[in-house]
Specification:
This protein is α+β, with helices and mostly antiparallel strands and 534 residues long. The protein has 2 domains: 2-419, Neuraminidase (6 Propeller), CATH 2.120.10.30; 436-523, Leucine-rich Repeat Variant (Alpha Horseshoe), CATH 1.25.10. Helices cover 18% and strands 28% of the residues. It contains 11 helices and 28 strands. Strands 1, 21, 22, 23, 24 and 25 form a 6-stranded antiparallel beta sheet that branches. Strands 2-28-27-26 form a 4-stranded antiparallel beta sheet. A hairpin with a 5-residue loop joins β26 (368-373) and β27 (379-383). The termini are far apart.
Length: 534
């Protein structure tokens, strides 16, 4: 029966390919909003589309309001250097970007972007590179390889999605190389030693980091291999717990960190992660797609392409979304949501909606792949917008050679989802966090939106603003926000200003996440003379 379904899928796809080609690229951007279904109380807006952006897979908004969009044009087979970082600006002040320029180009298969220093970090395996515009003309003129050695394997398995963690480390999602059977020349790379190219004495990791996630600190050349692995995407909750995703397994938790496992190298642990959905792997989904397109190895009606996992911390949605994760499911043209609750030493993920999804489209070219929580608290949905989103390594030969692999490669959309009563988009060009005082940066550690907390902490630690220390101590003593406490703690740790009293006073805090982070910081000082870890 399954073989019959697969054969029928290929036949339907061949017919559908011809139909879509005649339609010259799916549905125009101006008509795309009519294809969506959202829960009552939410609205969706089109923020950017072709020709301003094409093949978008990730975005970043820096503290000055610059919008960077990462475009991967080469998926699935082109390694010629067609990847681009676009810089979007709002020239007329209406809140929506209306100008797009190339910030950087000649990237191979770029798969993640993050604000760092005065520029951005981009994952473009085998490297993680730093790009900066030092002249103010909107074009990167500084390019430096920060970390290298990751396998240039199938794009769906490459390193990706850098995230600045609560603990001041940069986390890199990574699943490691696969062994191709067909495209061995293109994607047979197995990686090398993970290393800092500009420091031969810095720590290294085994070849391709043993296919595990990685975290690092560029300034101090610290580098660690984590205990879990993930495909495209990763997310951290407000306490720094790490959640991952991979194809049919749409959410799992890194339950035991590598720093604990490494204390006993003789202890054999088969898997340090915990699957947490109560609705199982390959969970049922509820698409509304008209004339859906499924490739040969795609399971129909269940999660098969999960990616872009994001724990919502925007502060704009109703309180019922405070512990909710979003997962993109591009094969079925939808976004799935789960409510996360504690379960022993790990978690349970249950459907937020029964018999429907948070976002679904009737358009078979709608391909959500990643999300971004903006400074306005909105959830931005990044739509790759392709006719086919699969690698020919796992396709029928007929489909792979149909000429449709790159249909839509000159298209792409970014959407903004907010509650109905949310303010209109006023434009990131009004952001001035780059010019904020030390007092204002410390204040933003209490912001309900992770964008403000994360960037304020990053700026304080990066600038080593020692004048912030008394303000951070005052925040610890005065705030009633557990989230503000942990950000203040890790900012103080980043400023090398943690004291024993700060930590021990929080060991009895009523919020478990605060106690846990206090212990994690204490562990860092077990061998120094501060007495914190004693």
């Amino acid at each position: 029966m399954r073989l019959l379904i697969c054969i029928l899928s290929v036949c339907l796809l061949a017919s559908s390919c011809n139909e879509q080609n005649n339609r010259a690229g799916g549905i125009p951007p101006e008509k795309s909003l009519s294809t969506f279904e959202l829960p009552e109380g939410f609205k969706i807006e089109l923020v950017a589309s072709e020709p301003m952006v094409a093949d978008p897979i990730a975005m970043e908004v820096d503290e000055s309001g610059n919008i960077y969009v990462l475009e991967m044009h080469g998926y699935p087979l082109d390694k010629s250097g067609s990847g681009v970082v676009k810089l979007l600006t709002d020239a007329n002040g209406d809140g929506f970007p209306d100008k797009s320029t190339v910030f950087a180009d000649k990237l191979t298969l770029p798969s993640g972007i993050m604000r760092w220093k005065k520029g951005i970090l981009v994952v473009d395996v085998p490297n993680i590179i730093y790009l900066e515009d030092s002249t103010g003309d909107g074009i990167a003129d500084i390019k430096k390889t920060v970390l290298s050695g990751f396998a240039l394997s199938n794009p769906q398995h490459n390193a990706n999605t850098p995230v600045y963690g609560l603990d001041n480390w940069i986390y890199i999602a990574h699943e490691g190389e696969i062994t191709p059977k067909i495209y061995t020349k293109e994607f047979g790379d197995t990686g090398s030693i993970i290393h800092f190219p500009d420091n031969k004495n810095a720590k290294t990791l085994p070849r391709n980091a043993n296919n595990r996630n990685v975290r690092f600190k560029p300034d101090t050349y610290e580098l660690e291999m984590l205990s879990g692995e993930t495909q495209y995407g990763q997310t951290l909750d407000r306490w720094g717990h790490h959640f991952l995703t991979s194809n049919a397994n749409h959410i799992f938790h890194e339950a035991i960190q590598a720093r604990y496992l490494s204390q006993n190298p003789n202890l054999l642990i088969a898997d340090a992660t915990q699957d947490i959905p109560d609705h199982g792997d390959a969970a049922e989904v509820f698409p509304i797609t008209k004339n859906p397109q499924h490739q040969l190895l795609t399971d129909v009606g269940v999660i098969t392409s999960s990616c872009g996992i994001t724990w919502y911390q925007g502060g704009l949605f109703p309180d019922s979304f405070n512990n909710v994760t979003f997962v993109a499911e591009p094969v079925h043209n939808l976004v799935h949501t789960d409510k996360i609750s504690g379960k022993g030493t790990s978690y349970n993920a249950s459907r937020l909606y029964n018999d429907r999804e948070f976002l679904a489209s009737t358009d078979p070219w709608f391909r959500p792949v990643q999300f971004y929580i903006g400074p306005d608290g909105a959830l931005y949905v990044i739509d790759y917008y392709r006719q086919i989103i699969e690698h020919p390594e796992w396709m029928s030969e007929e489909v792979a050679k149909s000429g449709a692999l790159y249909n839509g490669s000159n298209q792409g959309r970014i959407y903004r989802i907010t509650p109905d009563n949310a303010p209109a988009l006023t434009g990131n060009s009004k952001l001035t966090l780059n010019n904020a005082s030390i007092q204002e940066l410390v204040k933003q550690l209490s912001n309900p939106n992770i964008w403000w907390r994360r960037n304020a902490q990053r700026l304080l630690v990066d600038k080593q603003e020692l004048s912030a220390i008394p303000l951070l101590k005052e925040l610890l003593d005065s705030t009633h926000s557990p989230t503000a406490i942990v950000h203040a703690l890790w900012t103080l740790e980043g400023l090398k200003a943690i004291s024993k009293n700060m930590i021990t006073n929080l060991f009895k805090h009523p919020e478990a996440g605060v106690r846990e982070n206090a212990i994690r910081i204490a562990e860092l000082h077990m061998k120094d003379n501060t007495g914190i870890g004693k």
